[in-house]
Design a protein that fits this description.
Rossmann fold, 8-stranded mixed beta sheet, 10 helices, alpha/beta
Length: about 270
């Protein structure tokens, strides 16, 4: 009997699950963001939301000395990360589990740092802030990346793509305003460099898509899905000057806290 064509979800995991990370970012950016947290405890309790296969989780394990709980909703990603943690002998201080970002079921005031690269937009930033804030201890930090527009009038093609995936996407100042309104003090932010899109994300993605096209060369349905997935890097080549990923670092304020009078550190390349 002929082999059934793989589903979109199956091909999605075959592509994205094979990548070092599932979105823009790299170790250099993680280290840079951590420099904006000078008084983070020596052994912080860290929560990594939307960890994927754990690219940034492993960076955090290298760059910090505390405990890390990594959560993602996709079981194959968590299975991949769990195997990596065993292989690297990190299970003593890094745990990975399947979970819903909207319903984490974690105790309040449990973490010194919540980290999330490219995942909070799935909830909407205001809702994500409302979920994260109670989980942080007083003065705890939230570090996350989010897609933002870089220009006032993005090309229609770029707007159309993001309207489907992230209709509330704004500019840096819009995210900073949401942070301030959500019970956080904006501490600093910087734009991810182009290398953070290509080194561990789009370059290996294109390599994996090519390999899968060879595997499914006689399967038109699979090839159509792979063609759709493969459009993303080319879209970034054509329209990447219109949008960016920004790394934001914010600090949980007290209930009566105010962000007034605080300077937000904008780092320049």
């Amino acid at each position: 009997m002929p082999t059934a064509s793989p589903s979109f979800q199956d091909l999605f995991h075959q592509v994205f699950g094979a990548l070092p990370r599932q979105g823009p970012g790299n170790r250099v950016c993680a280290a840079r963001a951590l420099t904006l947290l000078p008084d983070l405890p020596a052994y912080p309790a860290v929560l990594d939301l939307g960890c994927g296969v754990g690219g940034q989780t492993l960076h955090l394990a290298e760059l910090t000395a505390g405990s890390i709980l990594a959560i993602d909703r996709h079981p194959p990603f968590i299975g991949h990360l769990t195997a990596t943690l065993v292989e690297r002998g990190l299970t003593g201080r890094v745990r990975a589990r399947v979970g819903d970002l909207a319903d984490l079921g974690l105790p309040a005031a449990s973490f010194d740092l919540i980290w999330s690269e490219g995942a909070l937009y799935n909830l909407g930033i205001p809702r994500a802030l409302a979920i994260c804030r109670p989980l942080l201890r007083d003065g705890g930090y939230l570090a996350f990346t989010d897609a933002v527009w870089r220009v006032e009038n993005p090309p229609a093609a770029a707007r159309a793509v993001f309207a489907a995936d992230y209709p509330t996407m704004g500019r840096v100042e819009d995210v900073l305003a949401l942070i301030g309104a959500g019970g956080f003090e904006p501490v600093g932010h910087f734009t991810l460099p182009d290398a953070a899109w290509w080194e561990d994300f789009y370059t290996p993605m294109e390599r994996q898509v090519r390999a899968l096209r060879e595997r499914y060369h006689d399967d038109p349905a699979a090839l159509a899905v792979l063609a759709e997935i493969g459009q993303e890097p080319d879209f970034h080549r054509r329209h990447g000057d219109a949008y960016a990923y920004e790394f934001f670092v914010a600090r949980r304020t007290s209930k009566s806290g105010s962000t007034a009078g605080h300077e937000v550190k904008k780092e320049f390349e």
